[in-house]
Amino acid sequence: MASMGRFTVGSHVWVEDADVAWIDGLVEEVHGDELIINCTSGKKVTANVSSVYPKDVEVKRCGVEDMTRLAYLHEPGVLRNLKSRYGMNEIYTYTGNILIAVNPFQRLPHLYNDHMMEMYKGAEFGELSPHPFAMADRAYRLMMNYGTSQAILVSGESGAGKTESTKMLMQYLAFMGGKVESDGRSVQQQVLESNPVLEAFGNAKTVRNNNSSRFGKFVELQFDQNGKISGAAIRTYLLERSRVCQISDPERNYHCFYMLCAAPPEDRERYKLGDASLFHYLNQSNCIKLDGMDDSSEYIATRRAMDIVGISSDEQDAIFRVVAAILHLGNVEFSEGSEADSSVPKDDKSQFHLRTAAELFMCDEKSLEESLCKRVMVTRGESIVRNLDSRAAALSRDALARMVYSRLFDW
Q1: Single residue among 214, 239, 264 that ends a domain in this structure
Q2: How many CB atoms lie within 10 A of CB 85?
Q3: Can you say which residues are annotated as belonging to the binding site?
Q4: Which residues are annotated as a binding site for ATP?
């Protein structure tokens, strides 16, 4: 990209740097399109004007709350402003009506309590410090004043903080529009408690994030004419199905698998589960437990959240039966059968897991085995049954696990 202005000797500039991306300095010499720059780091560089940008010397050390106030809105200027504010523990910055968040990777409860929500309630946009509550309040006021639907897009790379930012927006909108239903459960509660349920079944530890959402979602909050929440809908997209069967160090599978393996003894006995490290779909990675996360407590919290959002005890049992069945299914290994290119469960251990999976799926054990070890090809007027070798049977097992989990998540 061409430079944003004509440079002269003494101009304050930003120049690209291989080590720190951008570094500031003064233009010492100008030779056509080539500039010799004396950098503040002490080194002297020669750069083409296409990789040099003017520096706004009037910006304070603490930066600006709204980057539209910068004299030059270019990459080095934006990054310098965000870094300056982050150094002052200011993680939010506006660019017009866009809010940029820099993930602090620590909990800051004082920024998101009831007192803060009261502060932003009805405040003029831009009057207070940049905050997700300000974005949510603006959307709420526009909806109430003009009677039109509003949309907030939360975007960013993995680990940027999208999940937490979305929860804060929902927290504020639920605060503004909460009301108690006749059964004592508030719509506000149900909206907020949908988050831990979705996170249990759709989030996992990745290299960059201990609670990474492995799906996209569209959250719709519906309000009545009085501004109270009348309903909600959540649509999910593009679940990472491959994670169910295959993970690598130091990542984890979906949280719900580890939670169930850490459930109270009576639940583990009901689903015939042991330690998470005993299951193939979980022990492909050495990361079984997460620092700062108690899977046992999270299981209890998830069950409580499921109660609040209206999932009955029978439905919860059916959900966790499927989760447990997938774990048992993953422990079924295959060996070559007596017929050519055929396969059978490898040993008694595999037969046990197959039988347990069938019981939890509430299907016939023999039918489940045949569905894994054979393939049915339907042609016009007839069905052809073909044996699968041990490798193909294992692939069939994994495909079934992925499909069942995906259907469960969509439900």
Answers
A1: 239
A2: 21
A3: 156-163
A4: 156-163
